[in-house]
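User: hey, got a sec? need Tropinone reductase folded
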Amino acid sequence: MGSIMFISSVASLVALHNMIAYAASKGALNQVTRNLACEWAKDGIRTNCVAPWIIRTSFVEAALQNEEILEEIHSRTPLRRVGETHEVSSLVAYLCMPAASYMMGQVISVDGGMTVNGFYPTHD
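Assistant: Yep! Here you go:
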């Protein structure tokens, strides 16, 4: 059985300021994941998607040096920290393994709880 993994973003699941085009493209990727899962199942191909929040990479490292930005991220994330690359790659690896052979068409957030937070305060 084959497996295709897409990387989306939590921007496809919740509204984020000034990210309309990015969010729309990632939302489309989520739906491609679902449609291909149905279309390609007969061929033994599974598709899934991982939707990360802020993950510490070279792309965001400069922004994470800004204390205001970092506090904004922490205030929206119940775990009060930025994600690490291994937290995304571990899920991607699992989804490609035989142990995940019954999972398909899923969009899974790796976000420290950001997408389920709502208006719940993350600190006292």
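Quick note: The beta strands are 2-7, 45-52, 107-110. Let me know if you need anything else on Tropinone reductase.
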